[in-house]
Amino acid sequence: MSLSLLLKVMLNRKVVTILLLVQLAITLALLLNSVLLAQQTHQQLNRPTGLELEETVLVQLKPTTPQLRTYPLLEDLLQRQLRALRNIPGVVASAYSNQPMLTQGGNNNNLYDVDNEERSNIPGVPTYFVSPDFFKVLNVDVLQGELPQHSGFLDSETQPGVVLTESLAEQLFQGQSSIVGRQLNLGPVSAVISDFYGQRMHGADEVMYNSMQVAPPYSVDWGYTLLLRTEPGQTTAVREQLTSVLQQVEPNIEIYYIRSLAEQQHQLYRNEYGLAALLTILTALMLLVTMVSSYSSAHFHVLKRHQEIGVKRALGASKRLIFIELLSESWVCTLVGAVLGIGCALILNQALAQVISLPPLNWWLPLITSAILLFSVTLATWYPAAIATRVSPATATKAL
Amino acid sequence: MITLTNLSKIFRTELIETHALRDVNLQINEGEFAALTGPSGSGKSTLLNILGTLESFDSGDYLLDGKSVKGLSDAALSQLRNEKIGFIFQSFNLIKDFSIYDNIELPLRYRGLKAAERKQRIEQALELVGLHARRDYLPAQLSGGQQQRVAIARAIAGRPRILLADEPTGNLDSLMARQVMELLEQINQQGCTILMVTHDPDQARRAGRNIQIIDGQLHDSTMYEPLATQSA
Amino acid sequence: MEQFIYYLKVSLLSIKRAPLPYALTVFILSVGLGVFFANATFYYQLNSDPLPGKSDKLFFPMTLIAPYQCNDCRPPRALSYSNVQKLAASDIPSAQAAMYSSAGYARLTIDQPPTPARVRVTQRDFFQMFEVPLLHGSVWADDNAHNQVILSRSMALKLFGRTGVVGESLVLDDRNFSVIGVLDEWQMLPRLYDANGRNHLSPTEDIFLPLETGYDLNYLSNSYSQTYDDTDYRQLATEGRSGALHQLQYWVQLDTAAQQHDYQQYMQSLAEDEKAAGRHPAPINNQLVPMNEIVDYFGDDPGDIKAFALVTLLFLVVCLFNASHLALNRYLSNQYEFSLRRALGANRSQLQLQMLADVLLMTVFSLLGALLIGYAGVSLMNALLPQNSLFSTWDLTLITALILAALVCSYLVTLYPSLRASFGSLNQQLKE
């Protein structure tokens, strides 16, 4: 049957056709945008972090008594805990930090080159106060200078040296070559290391600016982090011991959570992940609804048009032709719906971008999702179309 | 043109077997206009359906144009119907979403003819039935007589060798019926073989041959020639 | 009535005749309504007004009184202690309270294991302003430092196993406090007074501590704090009171338009004075944000629920189209019967009554389905978006709205098909 005839028939059944088209279009629009969101979440989870996600474990904890939260008892506690962690078999390195990495916001500071405050000032740079082995735990590369070997004191007269990540150094000094020893507001630059992903800022681009000083934290009122890197394959075994080992060292602590960095990263994108999962479920439901609709529409069509199919058979249409004719009705409908749907998807995409961060549509996703839609509709129409081929041509001669 | 030898058709249900047709022998020659009459339930429609390859049969043989239709695939039967047989139904059976033009075009499309040829044939057929001016109407916009003329145009546009008509005037008043009969006679004169089921003795008389069917058995009244002498 | 029961019977019969199309229609309608309802629950609760009639009278004043040189910038999200002192000098507001959130460990005696507690450090007007129900005892007599705490009902139960504990003492971070009040069950949702630290979706605090005591004992803010000079944020009691350490939320109650106008003028004069004194380097930008606009002001509306709301609404529309499509097919299949009834003398209004019976049945079935799917949807959303889990409760308004929605949807789904069926040409249908 020709395209023009199919279109004519569809136009004659305006209401049913419009109903079907509207829902096909909306289904495609949703399908497209949820695939887009799922894809974005996937990309976020696969973005390089500069960290060894699987082998690095972090413990977020807080001493439960005020004495343990103040120096010198705090210093003693930190050292006792680090020693205990180092003694766990399978631990390569351990360190403390005032805060974990891969978090939503956290402790940060503005940072500038004291010789050039106006130009170089960067607000909201994540600031880590760590023990010397921190860099060993993260397994970062040293690009310039030397890492501090001993812990300094934030409250002393001489400020401890500052370690910068590569992109932060670049932003601060704009490509100047020798930056070790340059004075920043927090202290002199002692080294530059490879980038890692520290904090996700509200509404900011994902940048890898981080500054570190080897010194005990100012305060642990918000808790602190113990970090450790394990031998490959040892992570689970090490994790199982962590709670009891730390409780043995000091019972007056509250452990908020123990996570691998991979879990931490997953937690960071929890919202996106949740929304993508919800949209995917919704899309599956919607495809199901569309299939039910295509099925019932085709089924009804066949029932209603027994006579017509019989006549066509009498006029020389083979079973195959009847089958293809019915399927192509669905196909034409789906394709028209898909074209409308891509339009709807663009509108929905813009509407969604107002409230969540969502990448714009690309050119190939509509094709793939239209193909998925077409496949579902074909699947749903298959059975009614097969029933249609069973209509006997002799139906044509029976008077109703 | 058509040869049936010892053809039987049985309808079976779990309890009973009904012989719709019993050892039917029939010969219809090229260019004949035959009327098929008989009381309801006598097997008229079944015979017509078998002749039109719309239904299968249980035993015997059916030669159309010298070739047996037995054991042909669905696709081959469909092609046969499309190319050699034209149908006219009592209830017209026009497709109501299609215009007059589209209705007539349908079998030509199934045959895979080129657009230009389709157009030419449809014009001719419309000319013959006198409905050229209404080519873009929908069936529902035409009177019963006109609808049946469209159905006739659809049947002959494919230039079939044989036209099977199932009570073509059954739903029409006498004036309309006469017009349709005249049209059929005109088509017959152009060389098309016609087999028409009818209740109307007048119409049966107008046909050149009257085949009666009672309880699944044939009683050929006129122009009966024994099979043995039939060879030409 | 007897007649209507007859119509219901007829409806049931016609369902029995073709159960699959009917089941599919109900299924699709239930899915659409259920998914929509699940999301509407969150949307409704997240956007509900926690203090109806009062949320437009409570304001969060913000100023740029800080050693912060910038052009075109909004005031900090929190105030410094000295900011609050200057603002509190005005007697225009009917009530005012500064506050922040912190954390501590509570126990009855020093040898018990500590219980982690969310602490709200605040002033006495807090309870009146946010209509906090008091079960036992009273709030602090004034805004001075007191070693007195007010407990939430659940914290009292957790620590003491009972609520009548006024006068008892407890240990908070190794210091002794006496309990002077216990709150009744209270969960302000959303907790808009905490919106500046993006904490308005979390549960209420367990322990309430006087602001001055919090500063004296160096309770640090655990949500939002920022310093604009070299104030050491660990020295709340000293530097924290004078320096540019911004961590305080401040709420004032301004009941009339005149009060609001006066207060704005007061803020303006204050900023001008501070500017003249050199303590306000940035251009003046005062904000007086009413509580019902505070989330919008900070731009922290959780977009995912909004996005999902849009999408589920579309889904409901699709399901409606779909269900009416299915229903249309069903009615068209039954059209012969309709025509027959009319031929037998039923008039259109009687047929419409029959439709009404159909609508009611459809409503009942789809409502049950929607409740089930809605419940599943809410559980799923709690699992996937746990930060909104406080907002997943159903109340009478919501359930009533769902019943109405189910009724309207069932009616819409039945309306067009029934019109088609009952207004079709009688003659033609019988002939077909």
From TrEMBL, chain A:
Domain named ABC3 transporter permease C-terminal: residues: 281-393
Localization terms from the record: Cell membrane
Pfam families: FtsX, MacB_PCD
Domain called MacB-like periplasmic core: residue spans: 25-244
UniProt xrefs under InterPro entries: ABC3_permease_C, MacB_PCD, Macrolide_Exporter_MacB
Membrane topology: Multi-pass membrane protein
Cited PANTHER family: ABC TRANSPORTER PERMEASE YTRF, MEMBRANE COMPONENT OF TRANSPORTER-RELATED
Family to which the UniProt record says this protein belongs: Belongs to the ABC-4 integral membrane protein family.
Protein name, per record: ABC transporter permease
Species per Swiss-Prot/TrEMBL record: Aliidiomarina sedimenti
From TrEMBL, chain B:
Taxonomy, superkingdom: Bacteria
Presence of the UniProt keyword Transport in the record: yes
Gene3D superfamilies: P-loop containing nucleotide triphosphate hydrolases
ABC transporter domain boundaries: 2-231
Family annotation (InterPro entries): AAA+_ATPase, ABC_transporter-like_ATP-bd, ABC_transporter-like_CS, ABC_transpr_LolD-like, MacB-like_ATP-bd, P-loop_NTPase
Residues annotated as transmembrane: none
Keyword annotations from UniProtKB, A to Z: ATP-binding, Nucleotide-binding, Transport
UniProt KW Transport keyword: yes
GO MF annotation list: ATP binding
A Pfam family it matches: ABC_tran
Protein name: ABC transporter ATP-binding protein
Taxonomic path: Bacteria, Pseudomonadati, Pseudomonadota, Gammaproteobacteria, Alteromonadales
UniProtKB/TrEMBL annotation, chain C:
Residues of the ABC3 transporter permease C-terminal domain: 308-423
TM ranges: 20-44, 307-332, 353-376, 396-416
MacB-like periplasmic core domain sequence ranges: 23-259
N-terminal signal peptide: none
Record's subcellular location: Cell membrane
The protein's name: ABC transporter permease
Main localisation: membrane
The keyword Cell membrane is assigned to this record: yes
Keywords from the named record: Cell membrane, Membrane, Transmembrane, Transmembrane helix
Pfam family, one: MacB_PCD
Membrane topology label: Multi-pass membrane protein
This protein's record includes keyword Repressor: no
Organism (species): Aliidiomarina sedimenti
